[in-house]
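step: validate -> pass
step: tokenize input -> pass
step: predict -> running
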Amino acid sequence: MRYIQPTAFILLFLFNILTFNARAQSNDLTLWYNQPAANWNEALPIGNGRLGAMVFGNPATEIIQLNEESVWAGSQINNNNPQALKNLPAFRDAIFNNRFDEASDIAAKYFLGTPPRIRSYQPLGDLVIRYGWDEPVTDYKRELNLRTAVSATQFKIAGKKYVQKVWASAPDDVLVVEIISENGGLIDTEILLKREKDAKTSCHKDGIILMDGQIIDEEDSIRGPGGAHMKFAAEARVKLNGGKMSTTDSSLVVKNARSISILLTGATDYNIEHLNFDRTINPASKCRNILDKASGKPVSALFETHLKEYQSAFNRVNLSLGDNTRSHLPTDVRLENVKKGQPDNGLITLYFQYGRYLLLGSSRKPGVLPANLQGIWNKEFNAQWNSDFHTNINLQMNYWPAENCNLPETAEILAGFMTQLMKPGSVTAREMYGAGGWTLHHLTDVFGRTGVADGPWGITPMNGPWMVFPVYEHFLFTRDMDYLRNTAYSLLKGSTEFLLGFLVKSPEGYLVTNPSHSPENKYKDPATQKNQTLTYAATIDIQIANALFDYFIEAADLLNTDNQLAEQVKTAQKALPPVQISSKGLIQEWIKDFEEVEPGHRHMSHLLGLYPLAQFTPDEPEFFNAAKASLERRLSSGGGHTGWSRAWIINFYARLLDGDKAYEHINELLKKSTYNNLFDSHPPFQIDGNFGGTAGVAEMLLQSHGKSIQLLPALPSAWAKGEVNGLVARGGFEISMKWDNNKLVSGAIFSQKGGETTLSYAGKTVSVKLKPGERKRIIF
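step: predict -> pass
step: emit ->
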């Protein structure tokens, strides 16, 4: 028997423990299933910020549905109604004097966009792999490993094991498919690229499949002019280990290969600096250049580079909510058990990290566009709500987890897009409202539509200022002065200039927004009992105006600039109407105490001041309690019935410091608004609920919107034991915590830049001062 030195024994023991933990961790953060996806909402997503794919894991005919972020129908149009500005005085007068039917008529005739709707984000196509097995499939499993960002399908044929791996590399800007026989089996398959319309493909003996296309839009007075619009291309390069390859008119045919690798990329002629297609760009050449670089590297080197880049972001945050006793069950079974009332904190952890994974997959370089209503994943040519950028809660919600969940680079993609929108947004401000600065309404697309869309409910000119908030939050979390100076401040200043020019004096003598609208909600006109949408100074507008002015004053002071403009802002802010508490003890949603048409409406816009803003806090108990009462009324009337709305409720209860209620609504989100692949169901799929849910979990564990950083402010009793590392507080502070028996037992704080802050927990506070790069234990 060989004797092990104590040191060696300890090292061996630690190695075994670490190996066990690594396996446990890997399983903890893996979505897995015992059957292929039966539909798109069971397929597994991968993405690199620009390219996306949905992997079905079918061992007979595999479909990998492809997306490229800029494959959009439509074209660039100034859709600002040319009649708006000259009719603005009459429009405002009708609203001020309660002639709401007249105001609605003016809105429909003179303010609705020309054209009023946009076209859709579209799929790039499908990569199809038709396997040629002669025997039945056994030992099947498919998975998505969040730690590696790899979707894998494994199975056996006649005792031989086969593995298909799919992943998307951001550094090399390619989608990689590996098909491997692990113990001597041979692979027969047919590989093709296809698209339902507007594209043609060709196959070449050197293992290259080319797809070339251009979106042909039909003339549509509602959506815009027809014509040959966005050009796009895709290219796949197939390499074999062993075997032979031949071609048909539409596919590559592989016989007796030991393994197959496919590198694929796609591109369009979109130019974000123009917010338009750019005919100097050749999509096919872009694909060729990308693949020329990538194909010169072994797949193992591509994977190593991918893993290093991806894990440098994903691994910043680790979360455990106690024992994960159900990770041995497939994900769909776990979800079904939650629906039956069985708690599963491990599934909540998986859901939290899945949201971070999805944000990285849909909003990081090499991408240039922010995550849309479906992130980057869409199979429809005419998607629900066009899979657009909805700016009356949804696009904002997409970035709620960007900062506190330690993915700040994702928010930089949003800031870049918003910077480009200032150009058409300034035209909208001037042509529709006679104001300076810039704004937009309740949605936009890659072509920069900023006029009113859809209907009178789209008259929401304060959505421009609202979209500044996630841009400025990036500064609040990072304290990056260069970013503030070079990126955020121009957006903030332009939005402030718009608001100063848009505000008008009300009959009560306040400076108010008019026209105004509480997003998508309606009230009853007390004089006629008719349902109405238009108003002036809806409560959300007051909250947005106050936050925008606060941010501008702070930023101008930090940069020591625009002192005169800052004084104008201070004067205007004093003239804003107050937020009011209604006769029912609720936060009043409109300027007057109107009766709601739908008390359980999915939008809860008058509670923006509770979350994500910080205008209703325990420091002002009257408004804090009114916000709580407003939320309870929404819920008792059937609210929270859409995925993103339920996710917002989690964050509301976190801010109300009610962890058990927040936990209850996490479970409701899983039970009622989550598909088997853990995508959020509006229904149909909308990704904002995933991001809102992830942000909510973080908000329960850490809050930094007040005077101090609050540790475990809304910890539910169901999370009695746990640990989190890497959450971020405003000011650029990273926090790690461990708790047991629902009590904090240890913690640490780190700052890359250094600084001072105050921590609070269970009524105790402690001040901390850190040098750049310093970490300290948290001791109360």
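step: describe -> The chain has 18 helices and 34 strands.
step: cleanup -> pass
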